[in-house]
Amino acid sequence: MQLILVTGLSGSGKSIALKQLEDLGYYCIDNLPGKYVVPVTKHLHSVRREHLAVSLDARSDVSLSELSRDLEDLVASGVHLRILCLTASTDALVQRYSETRRQHPLSQADSDSPETLVEAIERERKLLEPIMDDAHIIDTTGMLPNTLKHWVRSFVNAKKGAILLTFESFGFKKGLPIASDLVFDVRCLPNPYWVEELRPLNGKDQPVIDFLSKEPLVRSMFEDIRGFVEKWLPHYEAQNRHYLTVSIGCTGGQHRSVYICEQLGKYFSERCEGVITRHRTLDAAK
């Protein structure tokens, strides 16, 4: 049985992710109380529901650390568990709440001791910490719904291995992705942006690939990042890490970071079971 547990900060896009999972054929349950996750999963497994997605937030009636122990029992019984956690910057969440004029769930739960919106967001972020190390994290800051749906599909369709390795390109001018385990800065490399005919293209286009592949510095940077990840990946796996996100950044997230990210994705896809390649700037334009 496949179980995807969807969690994360309120306002970060859990409903969108769950809807996408439903479209992909998962039996979805929104905001299930934590104490029911195990019995509901076992029941649905007994009636041959093989794909289940459950949305759970920090207001659960059991602590997330307690839930983690229950989930270990599920895995021991043969359930294939994957945890998807959505996050976003505090500024992005404040803006979303301002636009929708909704109240934060934790503020509703603790009406006798009111908190500011920022305080509620940070408290929820703290409550989610016990489950973060075991989750694949998607940072939805500045992300359109269609991009999130695309990234959720990539997560579901990734091959299942000991660890899910994600290479994500981004632009430093738009900020560092929150969901980064390792970050590499490739802004020191020759920039196709300054070649007029290459400026409107991106790192997946052949003219840009030809330009960058001829540069010794680019090849050296790729080899250094490849060697670092290849050397340390087994040590992350040895610590029972299920997900590792490697972020590659250039100025705009269009040329150099995309090229390096694509090359890393191709290299490791031939050597690892589960690899995702995604591009924060390019995917936002889809």
UniProtKB/TrEMBL annotation:
Gene designation: rapZ
Residue ranges occupied by any RapZ C-terminal domain in the UniProt entry: 165-282
An example molecular function term from Gene Ontology annotations: GTP binding
Residues that coordinate or bind ATP: 8-15
Record-given protein name: RNase adapter RapZ
InterPro entries the UniProt entry points to: P-loop_NTPase, RapZ-like, RapZ-like_N, RapZ_C
Domain RapZ-like N-terminal: 1-158
A Pfam cross-reference name: RapZ-like_N
PANTHER family, A to Z: RNASE ADAPTER PROTEIN RAPZ
Binding site for GTP: 57-60
Alphabetical keyword list: ATP-binding, GTP-binding, Nucleotide-binding
Ubl conjugation keyword on record: no
